[in-house]
Amino acid sequence: MFKRILPTMLLVFGTFTWAQESEPVVYPHLVVGGGYQVVVLTTNPTGRTWEGSMRLPDFGSGSGRSWIHNGVDRTGSDGTPLLLASQATMRHVLAAPDGSPIWSGVFQIEGGNGSSAADLAVTFFLEYWLDGELVDMVGVAASPAAHRVSIPVEVSPSTSTDTGIAIRRPRSGETSENDPAPFRMSLFDEGGEPLDTIPVEDEGAKFASEFFPDHAGQGEFIGSILCESKDPLHLVALRQRLLEGGRFHLTGVPAAILPGIPSDIPATARYRVVFNATWSAATHPREFPSSPHFSGLIGGTHNADVSFWGPGQNATPGIRSMAETGAQRLLANEVQDAIDRLGTAERVIFGGGIGRSPGSVPLEFEISQDFPLVTLVSMIAPSPDWFVGVRDLSLLESGDWVDGRTVELFPYDAGTDSGVTFNSPNASTVPPQPIRRITEPPLGNGRTADRLGTFTFTRLQE
Asked: Among 106, 184, 321, 457, which residue has the least CB neighbours within 10 Å?
């Protein structure tokens, strides 16, 4: 980010197969080498073991980047496993070998095997060492994905002050792997007057004076930068001031996340979702039932102010009824109540079931910008209270209606029936337990469970 400190580094992003437990926590600005190291503290405040990884995307084999995690050389790998017992805390020091040049990029924490990165408590610090002495440290906040972000900017050559911006951007579903989604920056002066707008084609870290040399690079400047991206971006801003003796001081710069998406898109879209069940004696041979099937699909379209189910939440009466009996009515009533009384949902979605698995069933529905999330579930049958589904899935995540998305379906326990086999007699769980992902037999092996199928969402052209 800094002219004498940080180079620009292009970053690589993942695929479009979406798993709800694996959304990473992103820090777009990791710096090691040249006196820099990073200290990360992670605490698992949950009541269960947390499993995942710490990753430096695109910094593995082939990148030529050297790095060390807690004294262990990780060159050639872009990540390191992370396992935390309940309430445990770990300290991680990320550095480069002595004499290595400085390099910068993105750092992220990812969950695995049912663990969510959002469950961890994390502190993240950049440290700068000069002649063996710690001379500066700054905390860097995790960066939520956003389409529009505003950053206060100060540039002062007289005090060697500048504002740096570190950016990680996803790829558009309509572009190739090497093409970033449309992204622009606009510079405003102290009074709010627009000065310049530029397209930004790179990710990485630069100074405000480098982004806008004709304005912020021409002397004393105070103003702001508005970042707008068709696809949501991750962003961190830092203010650097050089001090005597080669020292400097870093501080975080607050950024405001603004509503809206900077693109003209249709107000509504129509989608077909295909439930492709792969559950079979070959994929899950243990105690495989004689009549494997799935109940009729039920769910709705809604906004972020409501969530109808999720791991760690107790099942609503509608989710309980669906998971135990395959009934659609109570959950449909809950979605309808969110429509009529709360104004947080827009449509109830009904669909058919799968009479025998493996098999598939399609369903079409309409969705709007104001209610861009979809929740959809189906009972695993026969079972005590087991089900598959998606929750709070946005089809507007890329600043435009996504053309297609495939979601892997893993088994969940609604926490309302204590049966442990497919054909266990009814045994109400008292008190009910939170919804959780199933990992134990007969669907799992004690640690994980293979997927039972997929939902594939495809946008239909008008």
From this structure: 184
